[in-house]
Amino acid sequence: MNKRYKDQIEEFIYKGEKIPLSIGTVVVCLLCLLFIITATFTQINVSHFIPTVDAMGDFVFKNVSNPYVPQIPVVIFIAAILGPVFAFLTMILYLLVGFFIWPVFALGGGLEYIKSGLFGYILGYIFAVVPVGRILERKYSLKNILLASIIGVLSIHICGMLYCVLLALLKVVSFSYVSSAIHSLGGIKTLYDVVISFIFLLIAIPTKMVLWIAMRSSIVKRLKKSKTI
């Protein structure tokens, strides 16, 4: 009797295993899809102090506030929760919803969105979740969390910038648009993305342990058991 209860308890404890295919995992993927859509239309103000020189020539710290959309940290958070495979599939689903079902992208939706400079950043989500998920699968250490944050954020921004340049070369947008897009989405906001992604990945550890209860019951495992019976 004690062994049976012990086996049942062990089944709900996350020990670094890969995410299995299950009904619970599908539900978590849909919740993550809703999370990224919500983040797309959420804007917060990030306030902090920066060193500067005032009119008198004195060195002072100035309080600045910048609008920020936490979509990139949410994408990296999803990669930590779902792993590379299911995070990749969730990003593909997000892309398909935006193309064919509902305008869930920042500036709308539909196939015409591929002409938008922002579409490159959405493509970056797809490329970023795979390395982030694989890094965190190896070991969930502070070093890997920082590495995943940096690689994930840079993958998205580099993909976004290259896509903007490609559109300019194809004369879909002007090079002045590329410059303004890089200026508005890069710079200090890239640093915001790295820092907030790092915080989100720390939160992902207990979150994944809780969601593991739903994702652990594998469809494949149940099918094997049914064949055995």
Task: Put the structure in a nutshell.
This protein has 229 residues and is mainly alpha-helical. Helix content is 68%, strand content 9%.
Structural account:
This protein is mainly alpha-helical and 229 residues long. The protein has eight helices and two strands. The chain has helices spanning 2-11, 23-40, 71-101, 119-138, 142-169, 175-185, 188-215, 219-228; strands spanning 44-53, 59-68. The chain has a two-stranded antiparallel ribbon with strand order 1-2. Helix 3 crosses helix 4 and helix 4 packs antiparallel against helix 5. The model has no long low-confidence stretch (mean pLDDT 85).
Key descriptive features of the protein:
single chain; 229 residues; mainly alpha; two-stranded antiparallel ribbon; 2 strands
Helices and strands, with pairings:
Elements (H helix, E strand, L loop, with lengths): L1 H10 L11 H18 L3 E10 L5 E10 L2 H31 L17 H20 L3 H28 L5 H11 L2 H28 L3 H10 L1
Antiparallel strand pairs: 1-2
Helix pairs in contact: 2-3, 2-7, 3-4, 3-7, 4-5, 5-6, 5-7
- The helix count comes to 8
- CA-CA gap between termini: 21 Å
C-alpha geometry: globular
Q: Please state the average pLDDT score.
A: 85
Report Rg: 21 Å
Strand order in the sheet with the most strands: 1-2
